[in-house]
Amino acid sequence: MSNTDEIDDSTAPLIEHLAELRSRLIHSVVAFVIGMVICFTVATPVFNFLTAPLCDVLAESGQDCSLIFISPQEGFFVAIKISFLGGFILAFPYIGFQMWRFVAPGLYKNEKGAFLPFMIASPFMFLLGASFAFYVVTPLAYDFFLGFQQFGAEGEAVVGEQVNQGLSVVFQGSAQEYLNLTIKFIVAFGLCFQLPVLLTLMGKAGLVSAEGLASVRKYAVVAILVLAALVTPPDVITQIILFVVVYGLYEVSIFLVRRVEAKREAKLRAEGYYDDEDDTVETEMEAHPDDPLMAEFDAEDGRDK
Asked: pTM value?
Protein backbone atom coordinates (compact mmCIF):
# COMPACT_ATOMS: atom_id res chain seq x y z
CA MET A 1 0.00 0.00 0.00
CA SER A 2 1.39 3.38 -0.96
CA ASN A 3 1.74 6.36 1.35
CA THR A 4 -1.07 8.10 -0.53
CA ASP A 5 -3.45 5.22 0.17
CA GLU A 6 -2.51 5.26 3.88
CA ILE A 7 -3.22 9.00 4.08
CA ASP A 8 -6.56 8.54 2.34
CA ASP A 9 -7.54 5.74 4.75
CA SER A 10 -6.58 7.81 7.80
CA THR A 11 -8.43 10.92 6.68
CA ALA A 12 -11.64 9.11 5.75
CA PRO A 13 -12.82 8.63 9.38
CA LEU A 14 -11.97 12.26 10.13
CA ILE A 15 -14.09 13.44 7.19
CA GLU A 16 -16.96 11.26 8.40
CA HIS A 17 -16.71 12.69 11.92
CA LEU A 18 -16.65 16.25 10.60
CA ALA A 19 -19.67 15.55 8.41
CA GLU A 20 -21.54 14.10 11.39
CA LEU A 21 -20.52 17.07 13.54
CA ARG A 22 -21.84 19.45 10.89
CA SER A 23 -25.12 17.56 10.79
CA ARG A 24 -25.47 17.67 14.60
CA LEU A 25 -24.69 21.39 14.65
CA ILE A 26 -27.25 22.11 11.92
CA HIS A 27 -29.92 20.21 13.85
CA SER A 28 -29.02 22.11 17.04
CA VAL A 29 -29.11 25.51 15.33
CA VAL A 30 -32.49 24.72 13.74
CA ALA A 31 -33.89 23.69 17.13
CA PHE A 32 -32.51 26.89 18.68
CA VAL A 33 -34.07 29.06 15.96
CA ILE A 34 -37.43 27.31 16.39
CA GLY A 35 -37.25 27.90 20.14
CA MET A 36 -36.41 31.57 19.53
CA VAL A 37 -39.40 32.02 17.23
CA ILE A 38 -41.72 30.42 19.79
CA CYS A 39 -40.40 32.60 22.61
CA PHE A 40 -40.51 35.75 20.46
CA THR A 41 -44.24 35.26 19.93
CA VAL A 42 -44.81 35.12 23.71
CA ALA A 43 -42.10 37.62 24.70
CA THR A 44 -44.57 40.03 26.32
CA PRO A 45 -46.15 37.46 28.71
CA VAL A 46 -42.68 36.14 29.57
CA PHE A 47 -41.42 39.63 30.33
CA ASN A 48 -44.48 40.32 32.47
CA PHE A 49 -43.73 37.13 34.40
CA LEU A 50 -40.11 38.19 34.93
CA THR A 51 -41.23 41.53 36.41
CA ALA A 52 -43.07 39.82 39.28
CA PRO A 53 -40.25 40.35 41.86
CA LEU A 54 -40.05 44.04 41.01
CA CYS A 55 -43.82 44.52 41.11
CA ASP A 56 -44.06 42.85 44.51
CA VAL A 57 -41.42 45.18 45.97
CA LEU A 58 -43.07 48.27 44.45
CA ALA A 59 -46.49 47.18 45.69
CA GLU A 60 -45.18 47.05 49.26
CA SER A 61 -44.28 50.76 49.04
CA GLY A 62 -47.59 51.67 47.35
CA GLN A 63 -46.04 52.34 43.94
CA ASP A 64 -47.29 51.35 40.52
CA CYS A 65 -45.30 48.69 38.71
CA SER A 66 -44.14 50.47 35.56
CA LEU A 67 -41.06 50.38 33.35
CA ILE A 68 -40.13 52.66 30.46
CA PHE A 69 -38.40 52.46 27.09
CA ILE A 70 -35.61 55.03 26.84
CA SER A 71 -35.08 54.44 23.12
CA PRO A 72 -37.45 53.53 20.27
CA GLN A 73 -35.78 50.17 19.62
CA GLU A 74 -35.54 49.08 23.26
CA GLY A 75 -38.78 47.10 23.19
CA PHE A 76 -37.57 45.10 20.20
CA PHE A 77 -34.25 44.28 21.85
CA VAL A 78 -36.04 43.22 25.03
CA ALA A 79 -38.07 40.74 22.99
CA ILE A 80 -34.90 39.53 21.24
CA LYS A 81 -33.10 38.90 24.54
CA ILE A 82 -36.08 37.01 25.91
CA SER A 83 -36.27 34.91 22.75
CA PHE A 84 -32.52 34.16 22.94
CA LEU A 85 -32.65 32.96 26.55
CA GLY A 86 -35.99 31.18 26.19
CA GLY A 87 -35.02 29.62 22.86
CA PHE A 88 -31.85 28.16 24.35
CA ILE A 89 -33.76 26.77 27.35
CA LEU A 90 -36.40 25.18 25.12
CA ALA A 91 -33.86 23.75 22.68
CA PHE A 92 -31.31 22.59 25.26
CA PRO A 93 -32.77 19.06 25.70
CA TYR A 94 -32.57 18.52 21.94
CA ILE A 95 -29.12 20.13 21.74
CA GLY A 96 -27.92 17.90 24.57
CA PHE A 97 -29.37 14.89 22.77
CA GLN A 98 -27.42 15.83 19.61
CA MET A 99 -24.23 16.19 21.66
CA TRP A 100 -24.86 12.79 23.20
CA ARG A 101 -25.47 11.17 19.80
CA PHE A 102 -22.16 12.59 18.57
CA VAL A 103 -19.95 11.44 21.46
CA ALA A 104 -21.75 8.20 22.40
CA PRO A 105 -20.29 6.04 19.57
CA GLY A 106 -16.78 6.75 20.87
CA LEU A 107 -17.56 5.69 24.44
CA TYR A 108 -17.50 2.27 26.04
CA LYS A 109 -20.67 0.91 27.58
CA ASN A 110 -19.56 1.71 31.14
CA GLU A 111 -18.51 5.21 30.05
CA LYS A 112 -21.95 5.80 28.53
CA GLY A 113 -23.57 4.75 31.77
CA ALA A 114 -21.30 7.13 33.70
CA PHE A 115 -21.71 10.15 31.41
CA LEU A 116 -25.45 10.01 30.74
CA PRO A 117 -26.58 10.88 34.33
CA PHE A 118 -24.55 14.08 34.18
CA MET A 119 -26.23 15.07 30.91
CA ILE A 120 -29.58 14.74 32.69
CA ALA A 121 -28.49 16.37 35.96
CA SER A 122 -26.96 19.45 34.33
CA PRO A 123 -30.19 21.08 33.00
CA PHE A 124 -32.03 20.07 36.17
CA MET A 125 -29.46 21.81 38.39
CA PHE A 126 -29.47 24.88 36.12
CA LEU A 127 -33.26 25.19 36.41
CA LEU A 128 -32.99 24.70 40.18
CA GLY A 129 -30.43 27.50 40.44
CA ALA A 130 -32.44 29.78 38.14
CA SER A 131 -35.57 29.19 40.21
CA PHE A 132 -33.69 29.93 43.42
CA ALA A 133 -32.38 33.17 41.92
CA PHE A 134 -35.79 34.27 40.65
CA TYR A 135 -37.89 33.43 43.70
CA VAL A 136 -35.41 34.10 46.52
CA VAL A 137 -32.43 36.24 45.51
CA THR A 138 -34.03 38.63 43.01
CA PRO A 139 -36.77 39.91 45.38
CA LEU A 140 -34.16 40.55 48.07
CA ALA A 141 -31.92 42.34 45.59
CA TYR A 142 -34.64 44.67 44.30
CA ASP A 143 -35.86 45.33 47.81
CA PHE A 144 -32.33 46.50 48.63
CA PHE A 145 -31.95 48.61 45.48
CA LEU A 146 -35.33 50.31 45.79
CA GLY A 147 -34.70 51.06 49.45
CA PHE A 148 -32.79 54.18 48.37
CA GLN A 149 -35.90 55.92 47.06
CA GLN A 150 -37.05 59.17 48.65
CA PHE A 151 -40.62 60.40 48.76
CA GLY A 152 -41.02 64.15 49.24
CA ALA A 153 -44.14 66.26 49.69
CA GLU A 154 -43.12 69.35 47.73
CA GLY A 155 -39.71 68.42 46.40
CA GLU A 156 -37.69 70.43 48.91
CA ALA A 157 -34.38 68.95 50.00
CA VAL A 158 -34.09 68.39 53.74
CA VAL A 159 -31.67 66.40 55.87
CA GLY A 160 -31.73 64.24 58.94
CA GLU A 161 -34.83 62.45 60.12
CA GLN A 162 -37.06 64.56 57.85
CA VAL A 163 -35.50 63.24 54.62
CA ASN A 164 -38.68 61.31 53.75
CA GLN A 165 -40.51 64.61 53.47
CA GLY A 166 -37.90 66.17 51.20
CA LEU A 167 -36.77 65.61 47.63
CA SER A 168 -38.64 62.93 45.68
CA VAL A 169 -36.33 60.34 44.14
CA VAL A 170 -38.43 57.47 42.82
CA PHE A 171 -37.79 54.53 40.56
CA GLN A 172 -38.50 54.89 36.84
CA GLY A 173 -36.68 51.91 35.46
CA SER A 174 -35.67 50.96 31.94
CA ALA A 175 -37.20 47.70 30.77
CA GLN A 176 -33.95 46.63 29.14
CA GLU A 177 -31.81 47.40 32.21
CA TYR A 178 -34.22 45.49 34.43
CA LEU A 179 -34.15 42.49 32.11
CA ASN A 180 -30.33 42.55 31.92
CA LEU A 181 -29.99 42.48 35.70
CA THR A 182 -32.61 39.77 36.14
CA ILE A 183 -30.98 37.57 33.48
CA LYS A 184 -27.62 38.13 35.18
CA PHE A 185 -28.98 36.74 38.44
CA ILE A 186 -30.67 33.79 36.74
CA VAL A 187 -27.64 32.78 34.66
CA ALA A 188 -25.15 33.32 37.51
CA PHE A 189 -27.05 31.13 39.96
CA GLY A 190 -27.82 28.56 37.27
CA LEU A 191 -24.09 28.21 36.61
CA CYS A 192 -23.26 28.13 40.34
CA PHE A 193 -25.62 25.20 40.77
CA GLN A 194 -23.56 23.28 38.19
CA LEU A 195 -20.77 22.93 40.78
CA PRO A 196 -21.77 19.46 42.07
CA VAL A 197 -22.25 18.18 38.52
CA LEU A 198 -18.87 19.52 37.38
CA LEU A 199 -16.85 18.34 40.38
CA THR A 200 -18.52 14.92 40.45
CA LEU A 201 -17.79 14.45 36.76
CA MET A 202 -14.17 15.48 37.36
CA GLY A 203 -14.03 13.02 40.25
CA LYS A 204 -15.42 10.31 37.99
CA ALA A 205 -12.61 11.04 35.54
CA GLY A 206 -10.01 11.02 38.31
CA LEU A 207 -9.13 14.71 37.91
CA VAL A 208 -10.06 15.63 41.50
CA SER A 209 -10.41 13.69 44.73
CA ALA A 210 -12.53 14.14 47.83
CA GLU A 211 -9.39 14.47 49.93
CA GLY A 212 -8.01 17.14 47.61
CA LEU A 213 -11.25 19.12 47.64
CA ALA A 214 -11.41 18.93 51.42
CA SER A 215 -7.80 20.10 51.76
CA VAL A 216 -8.49 23.30 49.79
CA ARG A 217 -11.73 24.04 51.62
CA LYS A 218 -10.38 27.29 53.09
CA TYR A 219 -9.42 28.56 49.64
CA ALA A 220 -12.86 27.56 48.36
CA VAL A 221 -14.45 29.67 51.12
CA VAL A 222 -12.48 32.73 49.97
CA ALA A 223 -13.36 32.09 46.31
CA ILE A 224 -17.06 31.71 47.15
CA LEU A 225 -17.01 34.95 49.16
CA VAL A 226 -15.48 36.77 46.19
CA LEU A 227 -18.08 35.23 43.89
CA ALA A 228 -20.88 36.31 46.22
CA ALA A 229 -19.55 39.87 46.21
CA LEU A 230 -19.39 39.96 42.39
CA VAL A 231 -22.74 38.48 41.38
CA THR A 232 -24.95 39.93 44.12
CA PRO A 233 -25.75 43.50 45.10
CA PRO A 234 -23.93 45.07 48.06
CA ASP A 235 -26.50 43.58 50.39
CA VAL A 236 -25.11 41.49 53.23
CA ILE A 237 -28.20 39.28 53.48
CA THR A 238 -28.13 38.36 49.77
CA GLN A 239 -24.39 37.70 49.87
CA ILE A 240 -24.76 35.46 52.92
CA ILE A 241 -27.53 33.50 51.19
CA LEU A 242 -25.39 32.96 48.09
CA PHE A 243 -22.36 31.99 50.20
CA VAL A 244 -24.34 29.46 52.25
CA VAL A 245 -25.91 27.92 49.13
CA VAL A 246 -22.71 27.66 47.07
CA TYR A 247 -20.64 26.42 50.01
CA GLY A 248 -23.33 23.84 50.72
CA LEU A 249 -23.05 22.73 47.09
CA TYR A 250 -19.27 22.45 47.54
CA GLU A 251 -19.71 20.17 50.54
CA VAL A 252 -22.27 18.13 48.59
CA SER A 253 -19.69 17.84 45.80
CA ILE A 254 -17.12 16.44 48.24
CA PHE A 255 -19.66 13.87 49.44
CA LEU A 256 -20.54 12.86 45.87
CA VAL A 257 -16.89 12.56 44.83
CA ARG A 258 -16.22 10.42 47.92
CA ARG A 259 -19.07 8.11 46.89
CA VAL A 260 -17.66 7.89 43.36
CA GLU A 261 -14.25 6.96 44.76
CA ALA A 262 -15.79 4.34 47.06
CA LYS A 263 -17.66 2.73 44.16
CA ARG A 264 -14.51 2.76 42.02
CA GLU A 265 -12.50 1.16 44.83
CA ALA A 266 -15.15 -1.50 45.41
CA LYS A 267 -15.23 -2.31 41.71
CA LEU A 268 -11.44 -2.60 41.49
CA ARG A 269 -11.37 -4.77 44.60
CA ALA A 270 -14.05 -7.05 43.16
CA GLU A 271 -12.07 -7.39 39.92
CA GLY A 272 -8.84 -8.10 41.82
CA TYR A 273 -7.01 -4.94 40.73
CA TYR A 274 -6.99 -3.26 44.15
CA ASP A 275 -4.15 -4.31 46.47
CA ASP A 276 -5.23 -4.03 50.11
CA GLU A 277 -1.85 -5.28 51.39
CA ASP A 278 0.03 -2.20 50.19
CA ASP A 279 -2.49 0.10 51.84
CA THR A 280 -2.24 -1.88 55.11
CA VAL A 281 1.56 -1.70 55.14
CA GLU A 282 1.56 2.03 54.36
CA THR A 283 -0.98 2.67 57.11
CA GLU A 284 1.05 0.70 59.65
CA MET A 285 4.24 2.54 58.68
CA GLU A 286 2.52 5.90 59.04
CA ALA A 287 1.12 4.89 62.42
CA HIS A 288 4.48 3.50 63.70
CA PRO A 289 7.28 5.39 61.89
CA ASP A 290 9.90 4.46 64.52
CA ASP A 291 9.06 0.75 64.74
CA PRO A 292 12.29 -1.26 64.00
CA LEU A 293 10.25 -4.12 62.52
CA MET A 294 8.70 -1.73 60.05
CA ALA A 295 12.13 -0.30 59.23
CA GLU A 296 13.49 -3.82 58.64
CA PHE A 297 10.49 -4.64 56.45
CA ASP A 298 11.14 -1.49 54.46
CA ALA A 299 14.80 -2.39 54.03
CA GLU A 300 13.97 -5.92 52.86
CA ASP A 301 11.42 -4.54 50.45
CA GLY A 302 14.08 -2.23 49.03
CA ARG A 303 16.52 -5.13 48.56
CA ASP A 304 13.88 -7.18 46.76
CA LYS A 305 13.29 -4.33 44.32
From this structure: 0.71
